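tool_call: predict_structure(chain=1)
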Amino acid sequence: MRAVGFWTALGACVLLASAARADEGLWTFENFPAAKVRAAYGVDITPEWLARVQGAAVRLSVGCSASEVSAGGLLLTNDHCVSDCVQAFSTPVHDIPKDGFLAATLAEERTCPQMEADVLLQTTDVTARMTSAGAGLAGEALVKARDAASSEIARQGCGADRRLHCQVVSLYQGGQYRLYKYRRYADVRLVFSPGDQAAFFGGDPDNFNFPRFDLDCAFLRLYEDGKPVATPGHLRFRPRPIAAGEPVLAAGNPGGTFREDTVAQLETQRDVALPVGLAQLSELRGRMIRFGEESAEHERLIDEPLMDLENDFKVVSGRLTALDDPAFMAAKRAEEADLKTRAQAKLGAGFGDPWAAMAKVQASLAALYIPYRQLDGGPIDSSLFNYARGLVRAAAERQKPSGDRLPGYGDGQLPRLEKQLLDPQPVEPALEQLTLEFWLSKSRELLTADDPDTRLLLGNESPEALSARLVATTTLGDPAVRKALWNGGAAAIEASDDPLIRFMVKIDPEARRLRAAYEDQVTGPATRASEQIAQARFAVLGDSVYPDGTFTLRLSYGAVDGWTWRGKTVPPFTTFAGLYDRATGAPPFDLDPRWIAARPKLDPTMIFNLSTTDDIIGGNSGSPLLDAKGDVIGAVFDGNILSLGGDFGYDGAVNRTVALSAQAIDAALRKVYGADALARELVAD
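tool_result:
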């Protein structure tokens, strides 16, 4: 349903007068507005406070956040962040997504395939080095020069130490570049998952909604050299009551946002990118539902992928709703005009018009978008395709100097890529064929049947026949085969007769050509324009602004609060009593039998889920909800439906974070799951 009233309200407040509004901001730790928080909430966020939280905040490679919560490497995150892990362990006999998982001993903790954890050690300003790279260059040449500089800076930052991970991050859309240096953990093991009925109670109807009644938590453990990692600087887990109005903070890794985008960029998202994405997600969801109806085994296989698809569909739909609202876009235009006028007054007529330059780029983006998306982007969530592309490209790129390689293939990135490609992971042929067939079919539809790229993809075969042949005959599901191809490099790829490898060798040159054209006509010119716009923003606003999300560590602040919408006030808390009242016995509002049995043991008035005014976005899932002392009093797991436009703006009146209370986690571990040892570890010190 289109939330016209919400976006009209947001449009009225989005004008950029001087700085971020109350409770707004995805703040970097080096530029956190401590004075503003002290004035608003009486909370003193000291450099020591920030250092302690930074040292225990964790970024998971699956696109989520977490926190260290015991001295023995225990991590708290969301259950939906470990969905791929639990699905990897699931079998027809032991359906872990349904049954949940509890390791009674360290020996029973299971390594999550392809998952890594990063703890931020430090950031360093490398703006001068990055902006000087490619001086006087444009288009693809600029992009390559910047990529080379980024790779070299990262190499120098981490050296050959595989325990470290370095990356150069563009902040303020090119206004600042920082080197992020992380402690890398490549062995992350599952300790506890409550099962979908508890973690995702209410299913898709409740997703991005509130009131909520979800135990969306999971526990992982960091390992190194086969032993749990010692984490003496962990955050304190405090299962205590939470008060309405209490100041709270969220430390996590918000993903990419577009709040600094120009109006022209937003219009391209609205008119080009989002409609295509929404249509494909919708149709793939339908195909997956049909697939699940074919058998009980198919229903088990789609459990996690379908939840991800439905989540993504709501996210993209919410973004499109925001950009479709005339009042919101009018406010964005007024904001942009105000910034432009003030910047030109400060910087002079010689500053130029980077907004016009950015608008010019959009025509090239629209022309290239579909072929670039389909060939270089590939299918949605196909493990076999990703294995083939990663192996083929790695073989080619590793023959080049590190700085000349594609992003993600430099020496510093190879350990992570190697893990993603070689970790043992179940491959489900029927599900793989569904996703490959859908991608090939949509490529033919969008590119048209007579397009050379369509002929390159399909030859004389149909999407159905080609996908069936590739999946039935490839051996890339075997990690030993992938390891041999990785170790053998270009010679092994050239000699391989695996049909999916040969398919990738055939299409990859065209995908690379499209990528190069995109970099030359879109990325390069947009980089120059966005850097100029960032200069304008700094000139007008100084350092009182925060950068768009980049899946790097940020700190948000706010208070426990509900909201009023269309005349209805939504309280900030739900309780265990509300969970049992909400249960109907029919999916998705049916209770796990363990929760039915535990009802007499639970305090019906205990806070289960809560809403806060913290500014979050995708990637913040699993972020610790912190009190003024920096103690963990909950885990962030969602936002309300009105926050779905948070990619483009924040409205403190109605945007809400949704979190699970630490009290509820503690009670569930002890009284529902019999996980007393885990509960004791959480509060041991």
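agent: The chain is about 50% helix and 15% strand. Proceeding to next step.
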